[in-house]
Amino acid sequence: MANGWILAGALFLVNLGFFVLWVLFTYESMREQEPRAPRFGWAGMGVHALVGILILAWPSSRVPLAWLFGLLLAGGVFFLLPIPGKARSLRGAAGYLARDGAAFEKMDERESMFARNRSLRPGSPEYDRYYEAHPEHREYDERRRARGGPLGRPGAIDGGYRPNVAMLASSFELPNMVGDKARVDPASAAGQSSYAGGDAPGPEPLDPEKASRIVKGWAGRLGADLVGICRVDPRWAYSRRGEIHYGEWESWGREVPDPLPYAVVIATEMDSGMVAAAPHTPSVVESACNYSRGAYITTILAQWFGTMGYRAVAEHNRHYDLLMVPLAVDAGLGELGRLGYLIADRFGPRVRLFAVQTDMPLAVDRPVDLGAERFCEACKKCAEACPSKSLPLEREQGEDRGIVRWKMNAETCFDYWGRIGTDCCVCMAVCPFSRPYRSIHRLVRFLLRRSLPAQRLFPYIDNLLYGRRWRSRPAPNWAAFPKERRGGRAPSAQNRA
Ligand code: SF4
Ligand code: SF4
Questions:
Q1: ∠ CA 461-466-472, rounded to 5°
Q2: How far apart are CA 417 and CA 386, in angstroms?
Q3: Is 376 a pocket residue for ligand 2 (Cβ < 6 Å)?
Q4: pLDDT of 272-324, one tens digit each?
Q5: Could you tell which of 370, 376, 407, 468 is best to mutate to test the pocket of ligand 2, judged by most ligand atoms within 8 Å of the CB?
Q6: Under DSSP, is residue 249 helix (H, G, I), strand (E, B) or coil?
Q7: Which of 61, 266, 417, 418 is surrounded by the fewest CB atoms within 10 Å?
Q8: What is the C-alpha separation between 150 and 190, in angstroms, rounded?
Q9: Rounded to two decimals, what is the model's pTM?
Q10: Among 275, 325, 338, 468, which is best to mutate for testing ligand 2, by the most ligand atoms less than 8 A from CB?
């Protein structure tokens, strides 16, 4: 009799554990306004409530339930088994290069969609030179330019709802204001600040470990959500300048200077509630707001290095010498995902990336394996949800400019931005790694980092529980756009004129 009650008590506790997991899952799903997942949560809670009653009221159910729970717990232990670290990301961004980098070519900034759209002025000598060298881009670029800048008519999908359009426009202004102050040396830092102590003294000698600790703490205090440090691989620098923001046309096509030896790489988290409204205006407001945060953090940090007697270059929306994603991989912030963005630790692709180059000696971080690449092989949610079908669905990756990766179609993506007047963000919003880093999602992320079975199986479970389609959620109240537009379907590539 006593044994029966001990078994019942043990089973009841295990069942309670499962019940609590379902409660957490349901709570989080409702908080995230998931349309489908809470139904599974309620069903899971119902099943475990019934099982609890069975355990107490029907003694003959206990032995079969003990076997069932034993199997489930053994499965759980299986998911905790660590896997040997073989992910490409552990070798840093160089791990993504084909044939040891033999085919890799540095990126020319003039080739970037943004540089072509906003920096090439029709009728200018640069414009003629560029399209003489690249006639293959002329037709697309002229058609795209006719739609307007990177966002076409800003906020078009929400009828140009003015409060939100003004938020994005005003947030994009801060990087404009500080971009020409990105390059700092001790003399310029001393000259710019009456607090810097007059003439620039020599560099402050600091132990690299201590310097990194100070830099990370300071960057965090300024608002960085993730900070990593790496040595700068010169391959991740642009080869030539293509973005002209301050009329310095003599720089167009010039070689980008060799980078400084270290980079402090920073990610700022985008608010999940704002991103969840993608592709509507709140998501682009959030992007712009984060570009502004990044410009603020990196400009101050670069000035700090200058005031400490070192050189520094702030890397943000109005001044990029370096490609941010490979730099972030090297600095241990995350991995490259199917959607072409960084899948960052804790926040997934829901981040914006910035950096500060410096010659202050710093202790560097190691690249990480989050289990994202294997998860991406089976997941494909971003590719299925992409309204312009710009992301590949294949499991296998291809070679692109000497890099083995899933290649997005930047032209169709950018075209879509021009039609809806936002930066879309659907791929970012739908990604399971973008879910807020708390409770049940935290547990899942922990398992993904260390378990191969989790990396292989969880994409299917995620698709079952959350579905594969994207439906934009209502924006936070203060950023809500007019009702007739809220939740409205974005134009798809298929119904494009
Ligand atoms: S931003 Fe939008 S259009 Fe571009 S790849 Fe992502 S989902 Fe597709
Ligand atoms: S949605 Fe899925 S496939 Fe796409 S980046 Fe995220 S995890 Fe990878």
A1: 155
A2: 12
A3: yes
A4: 999 999 999 999 999 999 999 999 999 999 999 999 999 999 999 999 999 99
A5: 376
A6: helix
A7: 61
A8: 37
A9: 0.93
A10: 338
